[in-house]
Amino acid sequence: MRLLAFLSLLALVLQESGTASLPRKERKRREEQMPREGDSFEVLPLGNDVLNPDNYGEVIDLSNYEELTDYGDQLPEVKVTSFAPATRISPAKSTTAPRTPSSNPTMTRPTTARLLLSSQPNHGLPTCLVCVCLGSSVYCDDIDLEDIPPLPRRTAYLYARFNRISRIRAEDFEGLTKLKRIDLSSNLISSIDNDAFRLLHALQDLILPENQLEALPVLPSGIEILDVRQNRLRSSGIQPVAFRAMEKLQFLYLSDNLLDSIPGPLPLSLRSVHLQNNLIETMQRDVFCDPEEHKHTRRQLEDIRLDGNPINLSLFPSAYFCLPRLPIGRFT
Ligand SMILES: *[C@@H]1O[C@H](CO)[C@@H](O)[C@H](O)[C@H]1NC(C)=O
User: What distance in Å separates the CA atoms of residue 275 and residue 294, rounded to the nearest whole number?
Assistant: First the structure.
């Protein structure tokens, strides 16, 4: 019972720290999702919800999930008492301190940054003055970044959302072999060097929605979640067998792009593929099911979205036999 109370308190503190750095609109939306008194608290709320078609809003918004999982491995290190002061300072506010020296004596940021640095003797990078470094997480949300900053070697989670990054270079993530999650939502990224992510063998979540990408670079095979919603992806920008070797890929979010075909072959690990609001007019018969193997099934793949495309799904009746559920889209 006390553990439950502690977890709830921690979740609230973390949620507070996560929302503090977001633009107002986003923050408000998150606040509406905050747990209320009496709500039960689950450690992994997304696990079961993710395939429920009534819940697409939440499926798309992985933010609540990520905050819990990211901090999960730090629980033993971080005490709520010592953690609380750091969370009051949002990264957005913090940048004004190092960049434009302020006469305002109540500006607490530099002190906090120094405290954080001194408690982490292995890296004294200026990035942790501009961003917030906590354990293996680096938070650089909403601070007008134009490039990926140099990152501490042990960075496992990078958040650089709501910035103005326009390009990812091959050397930006060089040697960062511990990276598990890169979240660059809502930037201006229009190009990524082909090798930028290739050697990140630990990378599980690559989160790139709301950018200007026309093509995907080479992707490491350990990725579980690939989110490239709301970009300018064209089918010619996805290599023909890009996803086949990604045997851990579970969530592929490619909605609101300019794709004119369903990318394939899709790995058997896939649970969710979102392709709504593209320009898809037709599909290969074997894109989901192998027509030679009438007994095979893809139980995992429960969530296919093809709505908002010009395709008439009724024209491909033999394409779905192995699926546990029909794709969502226009059947007429
Ligand atoms: C879609 O395809 C089905 C099956 O061939 C056909 O009966 C229906 O008229 C088509 N609908 C449209 C809107 O083209």
Answer: 25
Q: At 264, is the secondary structure helix, strand, or coil? A: coil
Q: Give nearest CA residue, ligand 1 atom 9.
A: 332
The set of residues, in sequence order, having a beta carbon less than 8 Å from that of 61 and lying 6+ positions away, is: none
Tokens of 110: 């530099």
What pLDDT, in 10s, does the model give residues 301-316?
999 999 999 999 999 9
The rounded distance, in Å, linking the Cα atoms of 145 and 309 is 35
| Residue 112, φ and ψ in degrees, nearest 5 | -60, -40
Determine the pLDDT at residue 69: 36
pLDDT tens for 178-213 read 999 999 999 999 999 999 999 999 999 999 999 999
- Give dist(CA 63, CA 18) in Å, integer: 9
Q: What is the identity of the amino acid at 39?
A: D
Determine the residue type at 332: T
- Atom 6 of ligand 1, residue of closest alpha carbon: 332
Task: Calculate Rg over the CA atoms of the chain.
Answer: 21
Average pLDDT over residues 63-86: 36
Distance 121 CA to ligand 1 centre (A): 66
Strands 137-139, 132-134: pairing is antiparallel
Q: How far is the CA of 277 from the centre of ligand 1 (A)?
A: 20
Residue nearest to atom 7 of ligand 1 (CA): 332
Interval 116-135: pLDDT, tens = 443 333 344 589 999 999 99
Question: What backbone phi and psi angles, to 5 degrees, belong to 64?
Answer: -65, -40
- Distance, CA of 184 to CA of 48 (rounded, Å): 26
* Span from the CA of 284 to the centroid of ligand 1 (angstroms): 17
CA–CA distance from 67 to each of 19, 116, 192 (Å)?
Answer: 10, 20, 26
SS3 content of the chain, % helix, strand, coil (to 5): 25, 10, 65
The mean pLDDT value for 23-42 works out to 45
- For tokens 């326009």, the residue is 166
User: Using CA positions, which residue lies closest to atom 8 of ligand 1?
Assistant: 332
Helices (H), 76-126: 80-87, 91-94, 96-99, 109-118
